[in-house]
Every structure is written in C-alpha cells, then in structure tokens.
Amino acid sequence: xxxxxxxxxxxxxxxxxxxxxxxxxxxxxxxxxxxxxxxxxxxxxxxxxxxxxxxxxxxxxxxxxxxxxxxxxxxxxxxxxxxxxxxxxxxxxxxxxxxxxxxxxxxxxxxxxxxxxxxxxxxxxxxxxxxxxxxxxxxxxxxxxxxxxxxxxxxxxxxxxxxxxxxxxxxxxxxxxxxxxxxxxxxxxxxxxxxxxxxxxxxxxxxxxxxxxxxxxxxxxxxxxxxxxxxxxxxxxxxxxxxxxxxxxxxxxxxxxxxxxxxxxxxxxxxxxxxxxxxxxxxxxxxxxxxxxxxxxxxxxxxxxxxxxxxxxxxxxxxxxxxxxxxxxxxxxxxxxxxxxxxxxxxxxxxxxxxxxxxxxxxxxxxxxxxxxxxxxxxxxxxxxxxxxxxxxxxxxxxxxxxxxxxxxxxxxxxxxxxxxxxxxxxxxxxxxxxxxxxxxxxxxxxxxxxxxxxxxxxxxxxxxxxxxxxxxxxxxxxxxxxxxxxxxxxxxxxxxxxxxxxxxxxxxxxxxxxxxxxxxxxxxxxxxxxxxxxxxxxxxxxxxxxxxxxxx
Length: 553
Ligand SMILES: Nc1ncnc2c1ncn2[C@@H]1O[C@H](COP(=O)(O)OP(=O)(O)OP(=O)(O)O)[C@@H](O)[C@H]1O
Ligand SMILES: [Mg+2]
Fold this sequence. Notes:
The protein is α/β, with parallel strands linked by helices. It has 2 domains: about 1-335, ABC transporter transmembrane region fold; about 350-550, P-loop containing nucleotide triphosphate hydrolases (Rossmann fold). The chain has helices at about 1-10, 10-45, 60-70, 75-125, 125-130, 135-175, 180-200, 205-225, 230-235, 235-290, 295-335, 390-400, 420-425, 445-450, 455-465, 465-475, 490-505, 520-535, 545-550; strands spanning about 350-360, 365-375, 380-385, 405-410, 415, 430, 510-515, 540-545. Strand 7, helix 18 and strand 8 (about 540-545) form a beta-alpha-beta unit. Helix 10 (about 235-290) runs antiparallel to helix 11 (about 295-335). The longest helix is centred in the middle third of the chain and has 55 residues, at about 235-290.
C-alpha cells in the first residue's frame, strides 16, 4: 500500500487544488443550506426574525445570510433571497466541478505512474521470481489489478477526502439548530454502523482470492492461444474449455460473495437511515409544536441537513467496504516485488569462470547438480554435451547469474558471481538461448533491442546464415515487423535470427544453447567456419548434440 500512497501524494499541486476546492465546496454546501431558511421565513411572513443582529462580525451563519439579503427592506426581498440561493448553489457546484476535475486528473496521472513503476520493478526481479510467478499473474498485475485498484482505492480516496468535509458542513448546521435532536439521531445511526462493519469484514480476503483466480483464468487463456496448434491437432478444445470454465465458475462464486456484501451495505444503511429520520420527525414535532424550542423554518433546515448528511455518510460506509477489497489487491501487487541487494560492478573477464562443487535444486525439488565442477577458460571454445534434462541450460543460467546455486562456488576470476551487479555482469555475455523467441517489433529492433545496429556485421552474419535471401523477400528490409512471436518465419529462419541477435552483441563470451536444432547441414557448416575464423568473441561456449560441433573442439 505504501508505494501506492507515495505515488498518489507526489503530485502536491493537484492535491492542493483538490483540497482547496473540497473545502470551498463544503463551506458553500453549508451556506447554501442556511440560505433556504430565510426563504421559508419570507414565505411564512416572519422576515422580522432575521433583523435582530445583522453584523457580519457576529459569528452566526444566519446573520451572515441576513446581512447579505437585508431582510429589513421588504421591497425585492424575495428576489434577493432567490438570487442568494442561486449564487450559493452555483458556487457550491462550481467547486464540485473543480474538485471532480482535479481528482480525475490525479487519478489518471497516478494510474500512469503506477503502471510505469510496476512494469519497471517487475522487470528488475531476478529470474527466480518469474519461475515462481506465472506470466498470467504478471500480466494481470499491470492490467486488471491496477484498473481495479484505481476503481476501488482511488475513487474511495476521493470519498474519504470529500465526504468527511460535507459531513462536517452539514453536521455544523444541524448541531447549531438543535444539539439535542442531533445527538439522539446519531445515537440511532450508530447502530447501523455496527451492522455495516460486520458486513465488510470478509471483503478483504475475498478480494485477494478473486484476483488470484482471475490470474489463473488469464494464464489458461494465454496458454490456450499460445498452444493453439497443439490444441487443434490433438483435438483437445474441450479439455482446455473445461479448465477455463471451471476457474470461471470459481471466480463467479467469489465475486458473488463480494458483490452481495457490497450491494447490501448501501440499501441497509439507507433503510436504517430512514428509521432514524422517522424517529427524528416524531421527536422534532414535539420540540416545534409543543415546547416551541425550534422555529418551524429552522426545523425544515434541520431536516434538509439530515437528508444531505445521509448521502455522504452512506458513501463513507461504502468506502470502507471498497477500501478493504482494494487493500487486498494492493498487497498482491506490491508485496511480491523482490529487491536486489546493492552489488559491485562486474570486472573484466581475464582468466576463467569456474564451478566448484556446485549444488542446484529447483524450487519444485528437481535436483540438477550435485558437487558439480566445470570451467571455462578465457580464449577457449568449449563444447558441452549431455543428454536431455542433464542440466545444460541450467548450467548456463547459473553461469549467467540468472539462477542462484544452493551451495558451492561459481567464480569469475576468483570472485563469486553473486557479488556482481547482474546488469553489468551480463554485459560479459552474448547469449543465444535454447528457446527461440522473436517479438512483435521490427527485425532491426529484434536484433539489437533498440541499440545502434552495425550494418557491416549484419551483412556478414546474414550471408553466413543464409538470411540474406530471406531479407530480400521482406517488404521493408530490416524494418519489417517480425509478427507475433515470429509466426511469419519458418522455424529455421527464426533460429537464424536468434543466432544473429547473439552474434551482433558486443561481448567477451559467446554462449550458444543448442543453436542448431532447426538448422540445415549447410548452415551449420558455415556457422562453424565463421566461429573458427572470426574472433568477435574471445571465448565461446556451445551446448549442442550436433556431432559436427563435437569435432569442432
Ligand atoms: N524451471 C524449472 N523448474 C523445475 N525444474 C526444472 C526447471 N527447468 C528445468 N527443470 C528440470 O531440470 C532438469 C535440467 O533441465 P535443463 O533445462 O537444464 O536440461 P538440459 O540439459 O538443458 O536439457 P535439453 O537437452 O532438453 O535442453 C530437467 O530435469 C528439467 O526437468
Ligand atoms: Mg536445454
């Protein structure tokens, strides 16, 4: 919740505008209510009641009204009263506009900043975070969750800011007219508050559960569409549909509970409010008609004041319910962001990377390495082979500092990998992962991720990998978009682009994880030739089953 409020409170200018508008709105709401009183006095022919004290310095809202309308001059009095009512209500609504407008502006600004910050922070998380938290959940955080957080917490921040001031404004009016009646009314209203508290208690946990289920729904949908080819060929539409349907039903149940409580809070408090009002009418008529402690026009204002009080009080009671739900969401968004400790910058790679008695087990219990030793010397080209599931990709991830070993040492020139700031450490590597992935960017952007492109290098690599012919077919050369996940290219072409991406990176060590799965013999030959002759990288680690590579070392 803290980061959210930090962002919310950072825009001091807008906040000040909101606060001033809201206060002005409160003042004019209360004055507008008072201005109704002389209208009744005029209508009931009791304008002389207002002439007693008409000094503006004598603090009494009724005197202020009287000072403005000069009730002693009967000529045009009704006109002046009407004009006053119009002006006061006009001003009240003007400030309602300025406060609403600046509040909505603040909401949009906050939403923007929040998404930006959340995306940035999520990207900074170590790889282990993404192994634990699904893509669907992460997407849900920056889309759905923030949307909902805005709708719940923010709109209710509005209520919590505005409505108490309105309560204060109207409360001062009713209290002025009759402290006794006010006290009795609020004693009755207190009972309703206890009821509402009880209702909203469970909302927080339900809100959190709802978000979790929604994340699962998003994840299932994503996996379904990602794997559409498999799904179609295995004719398993029904299976995926039933998974989706099941979670959807769960979500419906949880939402049902939340909305039933949310919906109940408002009508219940209104009903209880009406009960209280009836009670007031009975007591009030006694004061007005029998004991004559309150004048009839003041009693009308008193009732109007109570009526006006009901809406902000109702909103405040709702705000609590929404806030509880919002808190659940905010906790989900913010608590899981892991902070990395401050680390030293990576040194130059001079000698070797060495694994000493490394143990590694995935969080799900899959043991991959036990007392594993390995070394990569500067200047060598190393080929590493092993059966499927041996741990080759895991080895690379450990070497790149993307995963942390459970015990043992991973040393770069004698210094533990964990000591380095991951960002600068990764500068040492040009990495071609086993999983080929192209993004829905232009080809140039896919190759360098926004960095400057070295056209001479591109030309050379494209010729070696046979991509030059592919490029000729593209309508806009390197500016052609790769299409979602590179669906527009063949499997081999996509792998070639992924290799080109790695080769274009200026780095000390080239790491290729199974780079030739989809490549034809001819391309493998020319890639080998290139790696043998050119020394763009001082050190090369290749993970491959390809026999050609085995000969290579
Ligand atoms: N994120 C993960 N969580 C749990 N277990 C994992 C995870 N990634 C890999 N594994 C398991 O760890 C073992 C090593 O996986 P790894 O990907 O390193 O194998 P590999 O040698 O690269 O295999 P391949 O030749 O198929 O690429 C496998 O048994 C695999 O099932
Ligand atoms: Mg692998």
